[in-house]
Amino acid sequence: MFSSVRNKYKTWSDEELITVIKDGDKSGVLGIIYERYGHLVMGTCMKYLKNVMDAEDLLSHIFEILPKKLQSHNIQNFKSWLYMVTKNECLMVLRKSKRSVEIPEELLVEESEINHLERETQFTITEQSLLELKEEQRICIELFYLQDKSYKEISDQLQLDIKQVKSAIQNGKRNLKMKLEEHHEFKTDKK
Predict the structure, then answer these.
(1) What pLDDT score was predicted for residue 18?
(2) Is the full-model pTM beyond 0.70?
(3) DSSP assignment of the chain, as one string?
């Protein structure tokens, strides 16, 4: 029965799904929204929290509070609204954990002020594509490009030969580029 409910909602627009949730019926609908946007929420959480476990915890929390948040907002563009909810939740986690400099209130964007954020969406897509790489490639790329570690430092940290590190970075870059090109082609085909 559950799969038939999910199949019923699979082709519905975001607006239709939100209406169902606002009417109090969440069975299967939240799962469809998760399938559509869970990877983007996870990518945004990783961007801000820089820790897989924290990002996964926040991803779960966001989808727990989503029905309640949907009740209290009139949403024009769900994807942008969800991005801003996620960003605000990430900033709140950073503020509570004091892992970041004090975040001024004006940086917490009101959900009613959301504009379409194409650049942020592209960044999120890039991060999601990075998460789809093989683990060794992803970790090596993150250490090399995001944490400015040398081949030697990465080799020592991961207990890999320098050749393996260089290979993982090279292959990871190539695979990341292919994933981004696939996404761009998919986006272009949809237009």
Answers:
(1) 84
(2) no
(3) -HHHHHHHHHTS-HHHHHHHHHTT--TTHHHHHHHHHHHHHHHHHHHHH--HHHHHHHHHHHHHHHHHHHHT---S-HHHHHHHHHHHHHHHHHHHHT-SSPPPGGGS--GGG----HHHHHHHHHHHHHHTS-HHHHHHHIIIIIS---HHHHHHHHT--HHHHHHHHHHHHHHHHHHHHHHHHHHHHH-
